[in-house]
Amino acid sequence: MIKTPDGVILDAIQVDRDSKILLYQQIFNGICDLILSGSLVSGTRLPSTRVLMQELKVSRNTVRQAFEQLISEGYLQGQDGSGTYVAPDIPDASFQLHRLSERTPVKNHSPVASLSSRGRKIAGDFISQGFSKGRAFAPSLPALDLFPVKNWTRILSRQWGRRDLLRQGYGELAGYRPLREAVAFYLQSTRGVVCEWEQVIIVSGAQQAFHLLINILLDPGDSVWVEEPGNLGLRSIILSAGAVPAPVPVDESGLNVKEGIALHANARVAIIAPSHQYPLGVTMPLSRRLEMLEWAYKTNGWVIEDDYDSEFRYSGKPVSALQSLDRHEKVIYVGTFTKVLSPALRIGYLVVPKGLIKPLTNAIGISTRGLPTHIQAALTDFILEGYLATHIRRMRKISMERQHALLDAVSQQCDGLLDVAPTNSGLHLVGWLPEGIDDVAAYRLAKSRGVETYPLSRYYENPLAQKKGLMMGFACAPPEEITRATGILASALREVSNIKIG
User: Fold this and answer.
1) How far is it, in rounded angstroms, from Cα 402 to Cα 202?
2) Distance in angstroms (rounded) separating the CA atoms of residues 65 and 28
3) Which of 378, 353, 336 is nearest to 204 (CA)?
4) What is each CA distance from 297 to 6, 18, 286, 291, 330, in whole angstroms?
5) Domains (ranges, CATH) in the chain?
6) Cα(470)–Cα(456) distance, rounded to whole angstroms?
7) What is the DSSP letter of 204?
């Protein structure tokens, strides 16, 4: 490069005003490139900010910002009254850290290869990323459009004004005591759960509950019975602890205990949803429940009861929790406010045998140190002042109406494409597909058009056991959206199956 009294000419630097990279960062990157390539050697004088702003047609502040960063990171140094020069000791090629968007991957190198063996398993596993608000037919969402915003906001505002909560610091690791007491009473009266308030532990949703339990109950290599098909998120949690998910077939009575013993006799934990199995929706009868408890007692194992949506019961007497039958303290109960209120609250709870209170509390202290106290206090008042009970009654009515809307829409628009039966509990239906239709292909095509079902086959670990169907949530969208989305889904299914309806 030719040097001038105003400093070296930097014609190699170009700025692109259409780029997402900020202008000062483009100047910074350009000068770094020239320094590290050897085009600008130590001691080279750079043009002044006034000159460079004219040449690049940018503001002087933009150039100053680039120079300040270059000086702070050791590429340049300023000399009073003399100008700005390339530093004598140039930083190494860590410059690449500043330009991640332009980095060229190293051949035969993958970040996954640098993970632990457990990390590689987790990276290769599928975890649901959640579903969009009000987008039919998301299977895991309640009617978020009807969340009681006014009452919740008023109660939450009241709690934020309580200085005594701020002075509590981190709060109790096992959760805000009044909330634990309220949850204990709620579960005793609605689910038949047998517990004292000390046995209730507040957590950040069911996922954290499972993560805590798996890590304190299992050693690496231990087997865990999981339902087949079953909860997608559990597999990765189990793998993250170095344990082994052991799928056990689900029949019309839930997880088949006899097959579990035959297939995985050495399992130490079973995770089941006896009241409303996910995703098939079956209920475990008393005889099977007693089999499960007998297995846990004889093997000194644990049963984790996932009671994720028991509030949504539309007919008949609610089935009591499995925990209510436990006489040997082998059942750990997991519940959540996600389905009845909103996933955004991230509040769930555990009911545990007294011997597990301390280890679980310590585990929370190691990981999260508990939940925000004000949110817990607001939920406490929401329960005690009767708003939760009112909201549940309303949600049952609305969800039932939306289920009927889905059944009617499928009957009118999806003849021969989906076989859907009503349910007396939960937030979703399973739409069974005709022979030969790929549920994954149907899901992808529908999603590309704004309809968010989920393929049933993904819930199976064993490909040979897979059944084809679509998970169809009916609670998250109003009837008019359900009708519109059903038409889009029917069109997608016809394309996938090449079925033409006359």
Assistant:
1) 31
2) 9
3) 336
4) 86, 67, 16, 10, 7
5) 23-102 (1.10.10.10), 172-369 (3.40.640.10), 390-497 (3.90.1150.10)
6) 5
7) S
> What is the 8-class DSSP label of residue 415?
T
Q: What is the mean pLDDT of residues 441-462?
A: 93
Which tokens hold the place of 378?
């607001």
- Tokens read off for 211: 């993560």
- Per-residue pLDDT for 257 more than 50? yes
CA distance 335 to 339: 10
Q: Identify the pLDDT of residue 462.
A: 87
Judge residue 410's burial from the number of C-beta atoms within 10 Å of its C-beta, 0-12 exposed, 13-18 middle, 19 or more buried. Answer: buried
The pLDDT of residue 367: 82
Q: What is the pTM of this model?
A: 0.76
When pLDDT is averaged across residues 239-258 and rounded to a whole number, the result is 95
Distance CA 153, CA 230 (A): 36
- What does the alpha-carbon distance between residue 47 and residue 308 come to, in Å, rounded to a whole number? 66
Compute the distance between CA of residue 12 and CA of residue 232 in angstroms, rounded to an integer.
Answer: 52
What angle (nearest 5°) sits at the alpha carbon of residue 292, between those of residues 287 and 295? 125
Quote the CA–CA distance of 161 and 289 in Å, as a whole number.
Answer: 47
**Cα 403 from chain centre:** 25
Cα distances (angstroms) measured from residue 107 to each of 95, 103, 227, 404 = 20, 12, 40, 55
- For 387-440, how does the pLDDT look when each residue is reduced to its tens digit (9 = 90+)? 999 999 999 999 999 999 999 999 999 988 999 999 999 999 999 999 889 999
